[in-house]
């Protein structure tokens, strides 16, 4: 992997800002999590605003409704005139009677449920006792506590807590097992599974395709994070004695190779086997990237904070596509998980958190070729003649791994191409 002026994370000046922010709340994660675990159901305990957010974020509500819904809190609930727990029990009981195929029910907290201090973890325990055989868990997707992708983190953390614990018993040494952590599209999961198999490694994915098929997690677990926003989930695994394999994230040809290499090194895969296993796919990825390099080379890109994918994506664009980074904003900078990425990123302005007006001033002053930002900021910036990329697309599109490297570069190249055409 090419290294651009390595910089120790501790030596890096990070601009930390707190103020008004323009980021979706953690409920958004339901949009991709319900596809990943078709036997799970997400019941948001929230307001009509929450229901509208989900409906517009999902876009495909008509197909998705069977796997998520909103228990809408009315005025009388918020005013404390009704017993919310009683009402929730009734909603859940009716839902589970109507939908016997649900194996895991997530009660998802929202801003309104946080404000009235509805105790959803306790409600989940109570309801689980009333409905044996169904796993009932809770997490918060509220905009007070979470941004955008942190909803997935909160969901997976609660799922990990309910996974079985391994114990060696009688001093028997446990055989290390590899776990990839983070929701990935099935097609990407299949590609990674084949690559690991060619390296001679068995792998499991968390979450898997069934919410009930949970891996036992303990000191034998070695895990690779597939997403940079899983701080709480990683902490739950580490509390169980699992070991995180530090690596850059699997974006682009070099990023994916380095991610796989971390597992290969840990499990003692011999270098020749490793090279043979990844060479064809890595070559395909490099060829796919060449097609977009001409468009991206030398372009100035500004990342506004949105999904926590910004740092790995910026590294990919700079080191594999020749992009010049103006500023890389992220809602939260997990220094430990991002250390391998930061070491590869070079001397770039990184900002954490957001004071949106100040950041917009910096965008206007820099006038980058491309600004990666949330939906709400894209239109006003386009109106000012700036070219933008919706950050949310990067979460909804398969972008991990060798086979998606070209598509990932294309996501950034396309708006630049469109801009060039419009200018002509
Ligand atoms: Fe809005 Fe909060 Fe509901 Fe998210 S959880 S849609 S931020 S009210």
List the SSEs and their pairings.
Layout: E1 14-18, H1 30-36, E2 40-46, H2 48-58, H3 61-64, E3 68-72, H4 75-78, H5 84-98, E4 104-109, H6 111-115, H7 120-130, E5 135-140, H8 150-161, E6 177-181, H9 186-198, E7 203-206, E8 221-225, H10 231-239, E9 243-244, H11 252-266, H12 271-296, E10 300-303, H13 310-321, E11 324-330, H14 339-345, E12 350-354, H15 356-366, E13 370-373, H16 375-383, E14 388-390, H17 391-396, H18 405-423
Parallel strand pairs: 1-12, 2-3, 2-4, 4-5, 6-7, 6-8, 8-9, 10-11, 10-13, 11-12, 13-14
Helix pairs in contact: 8-10, 11-12, 12-18, 13-14
The structure holds iron/sulfur cluster (SF4).
Iron/sulfur cluster is lined by residues 25, 27, 46-47, 49-50, 53, 110-111, 141-143.
Task: Write structural notes for this entry.
This protein has 424 residues and is an alpha/beta fold. It has three domains: 147 residues, 3-Layer(aba) Sandwich (Rossmann fold); 121 residues, 3-Layer(aba) Sandwich (Rossmann fold), CATH 3.40.50.1980; 99 residues, Nitrogenase molybdenum iron protein domain (Rossmann fold, 3-Layer(aba) Sandwich). Helix content is 46%, strand content 16%. It contains 18 helices and 14 strands. Strands 1-12-11-10-13-14 form a six-stranded parallel β-sheet, with helices on both faces. Strand 13, helix 16 and strand 14 form a beta-alpha-beta unit. Helix 8 runs parallel beside helix 10 and helix 13 runs parallel beside helix 14. The longest helix is centred in the last third of the chain and has 26 residues. The site of iron/sulfur cluster has 12 residues, from helix 2.
């Amino acid at each position: 992997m090419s290294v651009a002026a390595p910089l120790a994370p501790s030596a890096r000046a990070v601009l930390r800002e707190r103020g008004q922010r323009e980021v979706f709340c953690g409920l958004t994660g339901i949009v991709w999590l319900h596809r990943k675990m078709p036997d799970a159901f997400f019941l948001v305990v929230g307001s009509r605003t929450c229901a509208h957010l989900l409906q517009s974020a999902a876009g495909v509500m008509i197909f998705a409704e069977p796997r998520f819904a909103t228990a809408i809190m009315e005025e009388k609930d918020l005013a404390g005139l009704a017993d919310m727990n009683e009402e929730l029990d009734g909603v859940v009981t009716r839902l589970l009677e109507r939908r016997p195929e649900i194996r895991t029910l997530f009660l998802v907290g929202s801003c309104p449920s946080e404000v009235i201090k509805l105790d959803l973890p306790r409600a989940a325990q109570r309801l689980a006792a009333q409905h044996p055989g169904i796993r009932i868990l809770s997490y918060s997707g509220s905009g007070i506590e979470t941004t955008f992708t942190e909803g997935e983190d909160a969901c997976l953390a609660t799922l990990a807590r309910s996974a079985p614990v391994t114990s060696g018993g009688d001093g028997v040494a446990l055989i290390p097992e590899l776990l990839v952590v983070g929701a990935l599209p099935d097609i990407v999961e299949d590609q990674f599974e084949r690559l690991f198999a060619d390296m001679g490694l068995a792998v499991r994915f968390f979450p898997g395709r069934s919410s009930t098929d949970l891996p036992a997690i303990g000191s034998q677990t070695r895990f690779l994070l597939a997403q940079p926003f899983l701080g709480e989930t990683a902490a739950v695994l580490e509390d169980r004695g699992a070991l995180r394999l530090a690596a850059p994230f699997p974006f682009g040809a070099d990023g994916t190779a380095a991610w796989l290499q971390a597992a290969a090194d840990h499990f003692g895969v011999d270098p020749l086997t490793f090279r043979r296993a990844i060479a064809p796919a890595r070559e395909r990825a490099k060829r796919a990237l060449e097609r977009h390099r001409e468009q991206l080379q030398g372009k100035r890109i500004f990342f506004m904070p949105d999904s926590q994918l910004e740092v790995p994506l910026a590294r990919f664009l700079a080191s594999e596509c020749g992009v010049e980074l103006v500023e890389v904003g992220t809602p939260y900078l997990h220094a430990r998980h991002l250390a391998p990425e930061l070491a590869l990123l070079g001397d770039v302005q990184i900002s954490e958190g957001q004071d949106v007006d100040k950041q917009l001033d910096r965008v206007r002053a820099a006038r980058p070729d491309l600004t990666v930002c949330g939906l709400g900021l894209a239109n006003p910036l386009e109106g000012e003649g700036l070219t933008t990329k919706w950050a949310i697309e990067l979460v909804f599109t398969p972008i991990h791994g060798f086979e998606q490297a070209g598509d990932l570069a294309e996501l950034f190249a396309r708006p630049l191409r469109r801009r060039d055409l419009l200018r002509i």
